[in-house]
Write a structure and sequence with these properties.
Layout: H1 8-57, H2 61-74, H3 79-95, H4 99-112, H5 117-129, H6 133-146, H7 151-163, H8 167-180, H9 185-197, H10 201-214, H11 219-231, H12 235-248, H13 250-264
Length: 265
């Protein structure tokens, strides 16, 4: 029988017949080690994410960024985790006005998670802060294509058009936003500011007031309304907005008061 043969070829056949079983056992061991390593890495990523988010909430910029970088390094086989770490790092950069770093972070996030509407919106915001409005509009358009319900992206698109001086495009964006989402306060405020810039300040007043009625706790709405009243020469109404702002945002109230004082000279 082959098992007892001293024939060299027979021996080779027996040895090769056993080899797959040995490899199978090694594969099980290696698989177990790999699985444990992946589990350890996942746990460490989760821990670092928590550390980074806590540091971000407490305003510890360097600690948050350091932790997010560690997450990226540990997430080479987990692109979604790396994309989230880049995204969160980008929001930290935005918070601390590191706009170029924010752009880079959001671009890396998008490379790993190309269907993230939020990443495109935040990329647009960072680009807008750098006054790269054309690129910002492109990012906001992509965000809107990916998620029609991400209304802030549509608002930001209109704002970028306005900052570029393309007021007709801004007006179009805000008209669509108000038509499709009549309860979205920022749409009315955006249109009001666009009207004011277009020399249609009287028409803007009702839109400012509509925005306030929808979101009475937003100080920027009162500030913008106060500015429109100043443009119309109505300092009394502007002062009323300043008084309302004192309860919501004293710093904004002070800025408006300075503008009113300059206007009265």
């Amino acid at each position: 029988m082959v098992a007892h043969s001293t024939n060299f070829n027979g021996y080779i056949r027996v040895a090769l017949a056993r080899l797959p079983a040995l490899l199978f056992i090694l594969a099980i061991v290696a698989g177990g080690v790999a699985a444990q390593q992946q589990n350890d890495a996942a746990n460490e990523v989760e821990r670092l994410m928590s550390v980074a988010q806590t540091a971000q909430e407490e305003g510890h910029y360097d600690d948050a960024i350091r932790a997010y970088r560690q997450v990226v390094a540990l997430s080479k086989q987990a692109p979604r985790s790396a994309a989230l770490a880049y995204f969160n790092a980008g929001t930290v950069y935005l918070q601390f006005k590191k706009y170029t770093d924010a752009v880079n972070a959001f671009q890396h996030s998008i490379l790993l998670e190309p269907n993230s509407a939020e990443a495109y919106n935040n990329l647009g915001e960072a680009l807008a802060y750098l006054k790269q409005y054309s690129q910002a509009v492109t990012a906001f358009q992509r965000a809107t294509q990916l998620d029609r319900n991400l209304l802030i992206a549509q608002f930001n698109m209109g704002l970028s058009y306005s900052q570029m001086g393309q007021l007709q495009y801004a007006e179009f964006v805000y008209r669509v936003l108000m038509r499709d989402h009549p309860d979205y306060d920022l749409g009315y405020d955006g249109m009001a500011v666009t009207f004011a810039k277009s020399g249609r300040t009287r028409e803007a007043i009702a839109l400012h007031e509509k925005a306030i009625s929808l979101r009475p706790d937003n100080p920027s709405f009162y500030y913008n309304l106060g500015i429109s009243y100043l443009v119309l020469g109505n300092t009394e109404k502007a002062l009323e907005q300043k008084e309302k702002l004192l309860q919501l945002d004293p710093l904004a109230a002070n800025r408006l008061a300075i503008l009113i004082a300059k206007h009265q000279k």
